[in-house]
Amino acid sequence: NSAVNIVDWFNLFQTNRLAALGNLGLFNILTLSLGIPLYLALFNIHRQTQPAFGILAFVLFVMGTGIYISSNTVFSMLALSDQYAVATEVQKPLLEAAGRALLAQGADLTPGTFMGFFFTQTAAMLMAFVLLQGGILSKITAWLGVTGFGLMLIFFFIAAFIPDQFVTALMISAPGRLLLMAYQILLARRLFQLAR
């Protein structure tokens, strides 16, 4: 994302705001924020059997979400884009420089946001192990989570630190995403069963 020309980012914000917000991590902010109550519930389910690892996974997830949100620059870029749209030719180079600085600090899938992903993916793998040990999920379901989150952690690392290999990272993330979809469906089904 940081390789895209700043003027192209500003134009995307003006022509397709949702795509620009999504490409800079708005949906990651939403899904991570919505994950906090889930991790609290999972900890609560396991507070008798796996209290230490359950709370560690929850704390790591909350920390990772906070780090990601605080390092992501999606809303700052939105504000700069709006200023750029009405700026004079004299002001535009200053706004472009500010936009490049923001992208360097925290565009999605860059070193600036990696630590947030590192903590949340590590927490997710740890919680999958807690679920495995707690007997709430089947071993297959728990291992789907561990493997899927592990592949996504590799994806985030490559995307952030070896951007020339982004296509390779996407090939790694594809099975990770499929495994996580299965994991999340099976987890949701099991939580609904427990709620009855």
Question: What would you note in describing this structure?
Answer:
- With 196 residues, the chain is mainly α.
- The protein has 9 helices and no strands.
- Helix 1 crosses helix 2, helix 7 packs antiparallel against helix 8 and helix 8 packs antiparallel against helix 9.
- The N and C termini lie far apart (44 Å).
- The model has no long low-confidence stretch (mean pLDDT 93).
* Mean pLDDT value: 93
Q: Indicate the structural class.
A: mainly alpha
Beta-strand content bin: under 5%
Report on the biggest sheet: none
Amount of helix: over 70%
SSE layout and pairing:
Elements: H1 6-15, H2 17-23, H3 26-45, H4 51-71, H5 74-85, H6 92-106, H7 111-134, H8 139-161, H9 166-195
Features:
196 residues, mainly alpha
Describe the structure in brief.
By secondary structure, the protein is an all-alpha fold. It has helices at 6-15, 17-23, 26-45, 51-71, 74-85, 92-106, 111-134, 139-161, 166-195.
